[in-house]
Design goal:
heterodimer; A: about 170 residues; alpha/beta; Rossmann fold; 5-stranded parallel beta sheet; 6 helices; about 15% strand; globular; B: about 525 residues; alpha+beta; Beta Polymerase, domain 2; Cytochrome-c3 Hydrogenase, chain B; 2 domains; 5-stranded mixed beta sheet; 3-stranded antiparallel beta sheet; 15 strands; about 40% helix
C-alpha cells in the first residue's frame, strides 16, 4: 500500500493538457443538427458502447489508449460503458464481417433513444482494405445509420478525443 | 532425429517411397508423398521430430496440375529446419485421411481446410465449420478455391452452430458474447457450469473473419506486405516480418546484418509494449486499477517511441522487402532514453503486483495448462513457455539472436502466475537484447537494401512475435502476383489451450485466465 501511495505521489498528475491538435488529426465535419442534439439531450456528456465488427485490433488499442491517464478522455465527460442499454452512442470499428452483421444490428436496437452511430477507422466506413472481401458487408449504412466518422488507420487517440469533443460542442482549442 | 535420417528411415522402415524430395531453401525441405501415404508420413514425422503440426493447409493447383495439394509443416528445433510433407489430391472429390485422431494439433487446421476448400477428411471426429458460420453462409461455397463465386444470398440459412452439450443435474450454460463488455474483439464463449466451477468451455470464433487469405491473392508482393500489417494490428510488425521473410526467400535476397538487427529491435519493442499492456490487463481483471493505469502509461510511452522511430505507433509501413527504411539520425538516444524509462516503470509495476498478497492469491494456481496438454494441443509462444515447453523461434532458428546470447523464458507450472512470470522475464530479456543489438548495429544501417527481382516460387516465412510464432507460407505465381498465402497465427491453436485451462476454475476467474493468454481474435479469424 505504501508503495502505491509513494508511486502515486512521485508520479503526480500524468494527464496531458490537450493543447492544439494537429490539423492532420482533425476529423470530418459533422452536421450541426447532431451536435445540437448532443448538447441538448446528453448534457455535454456522452456514454459510448464500442463494437468491434472485425477490426484488426489497432483501433481498439487506440480507443483504449484514449482512456489511459495521459489522454484521459473521461475527464471530458466521455465514458465507455459495458452495455448498449447504458449507451448514447455506438462506436463501430472494423469492416463488418458477415458473422457480426446481426450482432451489430441487435446491439444498436438494444440502445435507448435518442442514439447515434460513430464509425472509427478506415475499415468501418466502407470496408477499407477489406471492402472487396466475400465476407465483408461493405457499407455499414446497410445495417445501421451512421452520423459521424473518425478517419485513420488507426486514428490517433488525439483524433478520437478531438472528434468526440467537437461532437459534444466542447472543442478544446 | 535429424531430417536426413527421418527421410532415410521413412523408406527403409515404413516402406514409403516419396514422389519427390527437394530442398526448397537451405532450411526448408519439401517431401511429396502419395495421398495414401500422407497420414503415415505425417505421423512418422510428428513422432521423430517431436513437434506438433506448425501448419496444415491446402492449395488449389487445379488450373496448372489438375490437383489440390495439402501440406503439413513440422519444425525440427534440433537442427533449425522445416519439414513440409505434401500430397496431391485429385480435383474431383478430393479427400484425405484425417490426422486429428492421432495428432490433435492438426484438428483445427483440418476443419479450416474443409470449409475453405471443400476437401473431405476421412474419419474426422469434428466436421463442423470454423469461421464461415452456418447461420449466415450456405453449404457448398468454398472461398479459397480459385473458381469460387460468392453465394447470391446470405443469412437465414436456418442452421445453427452445434455446441457440445453437457447434461446432468444442476448443470447450466452461460453464453457470453459475441459482443463483450470491454473494448475488445468479438467471440462467443459457452460455459457449462455445475455450481461455481466450470465443467466445460467451448469457444466459437470467426466473428472477425474477413477473408484475409483470399484478399492476399492477386496482390503484388509489395502491396501484400502492406496488407499483412492489417492482419493483426497489435502484431503488425511480426506479421509483416514473416511475410517479408517468405518473399525474400523466394527471391533469394540476403538481408544485410544491420537491417536484421534493426528488424529484431523493432520486433522486441513490439513485444515490450504488448507485454506491458498484458501485465496491466491482468491487474485490471482482478480490479487492481492503479498498477493497470501504470501499465497503460508504459504502453503509451512505448507507442510514442515507436512513432519517433518509424513514424507509426504500430510500426507500420517501415518494413520493406529486403530490409527496413532508414532510422532517423537521433535514433540511438531516443531508444536509450525510452528503454530506460520503460524499464524503470516496469520494475515499479512488477513490485506493486508481486508485493500484493491479494493479487498473488488470485493468480497462483489459477487456470493451469498442464505440460502434456500444451504439447498435445500444439500450444506455442509465452503460453507454452509457461507450461514448460521451451520452444522459441528466436532461440531455435535465428543465428542473430544466438549471437546476442538470447535465452528463452521458461516456467513449469502453467498457471496464470507462470504466464505472468514469462512476460516479466521476456520484458527484461527484450530490453537487454535491444541494448545489445543497438550496440551491434553501430554503423551499417545506411547500407542500401535490395528488393531483388520478382521471381515465382514458394517459401515459408516466420517470426517469433510477442504472442508466439507467426508463419506465412507464400506462393508467388509466374505473373509475380501472390497465388496463395497461408497465415498461421500462434493464437490459432492457443485458443484451444485456453479452453482446456479454464475448466475447474470459477467463471469469475475466466477474464484473468483469458488475459493471461491474451490471444488474438483477428489473427485467428483471418
Amino acid at each position: 500500500m505504501m508503495r502505491i501511495l509513494w508511486n502515486s505521489f512521485k508520479k503526480g498528475v500524468l494527464s496531458r493538457k490537450i493543447g492544439k491538435i494537429p490539423a492532420s488529426l482533425r476529423y470530418e465535419k459533422t452536421g450541426e443538427e447532431l451536435r445540437s442534439l448532443i448538447i441538448k439531450k446528453f448534457g455535454r456528456s456522452l456514454h459510448i458502447r464500442e463494437v468491434d465488427t472485425g477490426s484488426c485490433g489497432a483501433c481498439e488499442s487506440e480507443i483504449i489508449s484514449a482512456t489511459n491517464p495521459i489522454y484521459d478522455i473521461q475527464r471530458f465527460g466521455v465514458d465507455f460503458v459495458a452495455s448498449p442499454r447504458h449507451a448514447d452512442a455506438l462506436l463501430v470499428t472494423g469492416p463488418v464481417s458477415r458473422n457480426m452483421a446481426l450482432a451489430l444490428k441487435r446491439t444498436y436496437e438494444a440502445m435507448p433513444e435518442p442514439k447515434f452511430v460513430i464509425t472509427c477507422g478506415d475499415c468501418a466506413l466502407n470496408g477499407g482494405a477489406f471492402k472487396d472481401s466475400y465476407y465483408s458487408i461493405g457499407e455499414i449504412s446497410k445495417i445501421v445509420p451512421v452520423a459521424a466518422h473518425i478517419p485513420g488507420c488507426p486514428p490517433h487517440p488525439l483524433a478520437i478525443l478531438d472528434s468526440l469533443l467537437r461532437l459534444m460542442g466542447n472543442p478544446v482549442t | 532425429m535429424k531430417i536426413e535420417d527421418i527421410l532415410k528411415e521413412l523408406s527403409t522402415r515404413e516402406g514409403i517411397t516419396p514422389v519427390s524430395m527437394d530442398w526448397n531453401a537451405p532450411e526448408e525441405v519439401h517431401l511429396e508423398v502419395r495421398p495414401e501415404d500422407f497420414k503415415k508420413t505425417c505421423l512418422f514425422a510428428h513422432q521423430k521430430t517431436g513437434a506438433p503440426v506448425s501448419a496444415l493447409f491446402a492449395e488449389d493447383a487445379v488450373a496448372a496440375q489438375n490437383r489440390f495439394f495439402i501440406r503439413c509443416v513440422f519444425a525440427s528445433r534440433l537442427e533449425s529446419k522445416w519439414l513440409i510433407v505434401s500430397a496431391g489430391l485429385p480435383c474431383d472429390a478430393p479427400e484425405f485421411d484425417s490426422l486429428a485422431n492421432d495428432i490433435f494439433s492438426a484438428a483445427l487446421f483440418e476443419r479450416e481446410i474443409g470449409e475453405m476448400f471443400g476437401i473431405k477428411r476421412r474419419e474426422a471426429f469434428d466436421s463442423r465449420r470454423l469461421r464461415l458460420h452456418p447461420e449466415v453462409w450456405p453449404e457448398g461455397f468454398y472461398p479459397l478455391r480459385k473458381d469460387f463465386k460468392p453465394p447470391e444470398k446470405y443469412g437465414d440459412t436456418g442452421k445453427n452452430y452445434a455446441f457440445r452439450r453437457v447434461e446432468g443435474d444442476g448443470v447450466f450454460e452461460v453464453p457470453v458474447g459475441p459482443v463483450h463488455a470491454g473494448i475488445i474483439a468479438p467471440g462467443h464463449f459457452r460455459f457449462s457450469a455445475a455450481g461455481e466451477p466450470v465443467v466445460n468451455l467451448e469457444i466459437q470464433l470467426g466473428f472477425t473473419h474477413k477473408g484475409v487469405e483470399k484478399l492476399f491473392e492477386g496482390k503484388t508482393a509489395e502491396a501484400a506486405l502492406a496488407f499483412s500489417e492489417l492482419v493483426d494490428g497489435e502484431a503488425a510488425f511480426a506479421h509483416s516480418l514473416a511475410f517479408a521473410d517468405a518473399v525474400e526467400k523466394i527471391r533469394g535476397i540476403k538481408v544485410p546484418e544491420a537491417h536484421q538487427c534493426a528488424r529484431a529491435i523493432l520486433l522486441e519493442i513490439e513485444r515490450l509494449y504488448n507485454h506491458a499492456a498484458d501485465v496491466g490487463g491482468m491487474a485490471t481483471d482482478v480490479g487492481f486499477s492503479f498498477p493497470a493505469a501504470c501499465a497503460s502509461v508504459i504502453k503509451e510511452n512505448l507507442l510514442a517511441l515507436n512513432e519517433k522511430l518509424t513514424g507509426s505507433r504500430y510500426l507500420k509501413n517501415f518494413n520493406r522487402i529486403g530490409g527496413v527504411l532508414k532510422f532517423p539520425p537521433s535514433v540511438w538516444e531516443t531508444i536509450d532514453s525510452g528503454l530506460e524509462a520503460a524499464e524503470k516503470d516496469f520494475l515499479a509495476l512488477k513490485e506493486m503486483l508481486y508485493g500484493s498478497v491479494s493479487f498473488m492469491d488470485r493468480v497462483e494456481e489459477t487456470g493451469i495448462l498442464p505440460h502434456k496438454t500444451a504439447v498435445e494441443l500444439g500450444v506455442s509462444g509465452p503460453a507454452a513457455r509457461a507450461s514448460g515447453v521451451a520452444a522459441d523461434l528466436r532461440a531455435d532458428f535465428s543465428p542473430l539472436y544466438k549471437s546476442a546470447g538470447f535465452k528463452p523464458a521458461k516456467q513449469e507450472k502453467g498457471d496464470v502466475l507462470a504466464r505472468l512470470n514469462v512476460r516479466v522475464s521476456e520484458f527484461k530479456e527484450s530490453v537487454r537484447l535491444i541494448k545489445k543489438l543497438t550496440g551491434m548495429i553501430k554503423t551499417g544501417s545506411d547500407v542500401k537494401i535490395s528488393a531483388g527481382e520478382p521471381r515465382s516460387g514458394c517459401a515459408l516465412g516466420y517470426a517469433e512475435g510477442w504472442r508466439g510464432p507467426v508463419l506465412y507460407w507464400v506462393r508467388i505465381g509466374q505473373n509475380a502476383l501472390v497465388e496463395r498465402c497461408k497465415i498461421t497465427d500462434p493464437s490459432f491453436n492457443n485458443w484451444e489451450g485456453l479452453a482446456q485451462a479454464v475448466p475447474g476454475n470459477i467463471i469469475p476467474d475466466f477474464p484473468l485466465c483469458n488475459k493471461s493468454f491474451n490471444l488474438s481474435y483477428p489473427g485467428n479469424d483471418l
